[in-house]
Here is the input.
Amino acid sequence: MAAENGESPGTPDDAALPRVLCDTASLAALGDAPAGALWRLAEPGRQLDSNVVRIPPGGSIGIHTEPDLDVLLLVLQGDGTLERVDGPQPVREGKLAWLPHGSTRGLQAGAHGMTYLTVHPRRPGMRIQPPATGPVPR
Here is the structure.
């Protein structure tokens, strides 16, 4: 995605310059947007990952455990429920949640759906390891 100022993000001249990346209010206002990621942070050399995600009315992200990454979740539009092992926690526009690594969680959108922003450390890419030296196990 291009930077909001129309320039290409990540060019050598502006790689270390702060810049506006998207308008989350406009993304959240897309009430009929499809489910899934509406925006992703894609700047090269970043240390973070971030997404704006839409869950349609009544939709959900199933309960799961994230073993490695802490995640901040900010509800931009709508409401729903943060599912936790100790019971559901209502969330609505403006609520900021911390989802610590190792926690079990899920999301359930309310009657009008929910759009939220996530921010977390960048997950390292998959790396192909060189072959091991020595005999191949049988």
About this structure: The radius of gyration is 18 Å. Residues 24-28 form the longest helix (5 residues).
